[in-house]
Each structure stands twice: as structure tokens, then as C-alpha cells.
Design brief:
Shape: globular
Strand content: 25-35%
Number of strands: 21
Order of helices and strands: HHEEEEEEEEEEEEEEEEEEEEE
Number of helices: 2
Strand order of the largest sheet: 20-19-5-6-9-10-11-21
Distance between the termini: 87 Å
Radius of gyration: 23 Å
Length: 345
């Protein structure tokens, strides 16, 4: 009889343990998936054609920190976190703010391997490299802006009179799609200091996903292949002095290895859709590359002493500086926001 009671107690204990696990399961899953990514965020996400001979592919966002050190005015910040990671990168803000530059520990003129990034495989995935951050800004009333941020470890500039100008460590580019009730309306293509906007209906697509063409070296985003001159600000021409080149080289699907966040414009807070995603790096206000080298640095070159033609320029700021709360599809920079219904350079 005692043995029978013991077995009953064991069965009850097992059932209770199973019950506890079942009850706890939703909270376990919730810890992994804080919220559900809206279907349209991924189903309409752009795919990117990289240029066929571009030596600088998309790069892992976190790996950039392994090959750089924080500097302010070309001086190492001594009391910075060690090591600097995506989880503590924002700790550099009170140590220099926008004057902090994540500076290469290698001589970039030697073209170290980490600058060249990770080429996508046959499926379009950058294996072992998270090269994209997706940020969702819900304006309410069905209007949602989704930013697809692309990261490259190096930007190679355009060639003018035989010299590259505008090279820099670190490169952030992006597309932004404006949705209305889950339906895409328009898409922004970032290019150098500005960019272009088109209606969703007019752009090239693979299935329902819009196509973005990444320019050779500079990674500026365009809606079509060919030559894109950007000598005149906000006016792209089919030829000129500062030319970008796009073609169908390797296809990259940034969503296959991406961090995804929502953004609250009232609190300026980023919330990961998966709690395993690091978040603090998004608040970093400094630059993701070297500070522009002075003319006294033997690596620096200028054409006829003109500062605008410097070979090496400042590294870029990150996603938080890309005007995540826009009135229009285009960023607010004093220029008219033209959403073109036809494709052009």
C-alpha cells in the first residue's frame, strides 16, 4: 500500500512539473520574441544587387568594434569600456559624444581583410555577418515607416582626375519604405548626402520585393542599373564628374541576417523584436570610422589643395542619425521631397 501511495505521489509530482513547464512556456518564448514583426516588414523588404566588381561587401556590424578603437581628436579615449561591444557602445557618448570616432587599429592603406566584408552566398545571405538593422516606426493611423539599414566596413569613393576622393572607414546606407495599412506606398534610396524617392508601384521588383542597386565602392542605393552622376546635389545625371556605377553583380538579401527593432519617437527608445538582439549600440552618437586625416598625414591627399577633394573623409554616423521620424518619405534637409512615379538615374 505504501509503495502504491509512493507511485501516486511520483505521478502527481511529474504532472505538476509538466504543468509548471507548460505555464512557464509562454513567458520563455516571450523572452525570445518580445513582439511579432509585422508580416509586411519582411515580405516587402528590399533585395540588393551588389556591384559585380565591388571589393567591399556588406560587413558584420559588431565586428567593426573588434578592429577599431574609440578616439577623440586622434587621441585614444582611455576610460572607454574594454572591450567595446554592441551592448555598451553608447557608453562612449558621455566621453566625447559626436566627437568620438571608431578608428581603425590597422593601416587602412594596407586594405586589411576585415574591410572587405562578407560576400553573400547563393541564397543571398551574409553568413556569420549581421549586416542589416531594420527599424520600424509606427506613426499611428496605419502609417508605418520601415528603415532597412545596410552596413559596410569601408566606403571607396569616386575617382576624379585619377584620384579616389571620399574614402572612409564604415558605411551606413539605407532604404526606407512608407506603408499605409500594410501596403507599401513609396521607397527612399539613400545616396551620399541625400537620395531619391519613388513610388512603390514604379520600382523594379523581385516578386513583391523592391530592388535596390548598391553602387560600386560607395554603396549609394539606386533604383536602376547604369551610371549615376551626383556632381550637382539632388540632381542625378547619366554622366558627369562624380559617377556611381550599378549593375546586377551578387544578390544580397539583408533580411536573412538582420537585427529588427521598433522605434518609439516619443521616448526615442529602440525595442528589439527578439531580446537576443543587442540594442545599446543604436544610441551611439559618434562616427563608425576614422576622423578625416589632416593634410599633415602622409596618407591624406587633395587635388590642388582643395579640401572637398580629400581622399579620406570622416566615418559616418549610425542609424539614430538618419531622421527616423520623418514627415515625408525624404529626410528634411531643406530640399523639396519629390516622389517620382517614373524611374530615372
Amino acid at each position: 500500500m505504501a509503495a502504491s501511495c509512493g507511485r501516486k505521489r511520483s505521478i502527481v509530482a511529474i504532472m505538476f512539473s509538466v504543468f509548471q513547464y507548460v505555464v512557464a512556456l509562454p513567458s520563455i518564448l516571450w523572452g525570445r520574441q518580445a513582439a511579432t514583426v509585422p508580416d509586411y516588414v519582411l515580405s516587402y523588404a528590399p533585395v540588393v544587387w551588389l556591384y559585380s566588381t565591388d571589393a567591399y561587401a556588406p560587413s558584420d556590424i559588431g565586428a567593426q568594434l573588434l578592429h577599431t578603437r574609440p578616439e577623440d581628436n586622434f587621441t585614444i579615449i582611455g576610460n572607454a569600456p574594454n572591450p567595446v561591444t554592441l551592448s555598451n557602445l553608447d557608453a562612449l557618448n558621455p566621453l566625447g559624444g559626436t566627437n568620438v570616432y571608431l578608428t581603425s587599429v590597422d593601416d587602412i592603406t594596407k586594405n586589411p581583410a576585415w574591410l572587405r566584408g562578407v560576400e553573400p552566398d547563393s541564397t543571398g545571405k551574409t553568413n556569420s555577418a549581421t549586416s542589416c538593422a531594420i527599424v520600424v516606426n509606427d506613426h499611428g493611423s496605419g502609417e508605418v515607416d520601415v528603415f532597412y539599414m545596410y552596413f559596410y566596413a569601408y566606403n571607396r569613393g569616386n575617382v576624379v582626375l585619377g584620384q579616389e576622393i571620399g574614402d572612409h572607414v564604415g558605411d551606413w546606407e539605407h532604404n526606407m519604405i512608407r506603408f499605409s495599412n500594410g501596403v507599401p506606398q513609396a521607397i527612399w534610396y539613400s545616396q551620399h548626402n541625400n537620395g531619391e524617392a519613388f513610388t512603390y508601384s514604379c520600382v523594379e521588383k523581385q516578386g513583391q520585393r523592391p530592388v535596390s542597386y548598391s553602387a560600386n565602392g560607395s554603396h549609394a542605393n539606386y533604383a536602376i542599373t547604369g551610371i549615376h552622376d551626383h556632381t550637382i546635389p539632388d540632381l542625378n545625371l547619366p554622366f558627369g564628374v562624380l559617377e556611381d556605377f550599378t549593375d546586377q553583380g551578387k544578390l544580397w538579401d539583408p533580411t536573412l541576417n538582420a537585427y529588427i527593432y521598433s522605434y518609439d519617437v516619443n521616448t526615442h527608445q529602440f525595442t528589439p523584436y527578439d531580446t537576443r538582439y543587442p540594442t545599446n549600440w543604436l544610441y551611439f552618437t559618434g562616427a563608425w570610422g576614422d576622423e578625416q586625416y589632416p593634410t599633415s598625414d602622409p596618407r591624406q591627399k587633395e587635388i590642388l589643395g582643395i579640401a572637398f577633394t580629400a581622399k579620406y573623409t570622416n566615418g559616418p554616423t549610425g542609424p539614430e542619425d538618419k531622421q527616423l521620424n520623418r514627415t515625408h518619405v525624404c529626410p528634411s534637409n531643406g530640399d523639396a521631397c519629390i516622389v517620382s512615379p517614373i524611374l530615372r538615374p
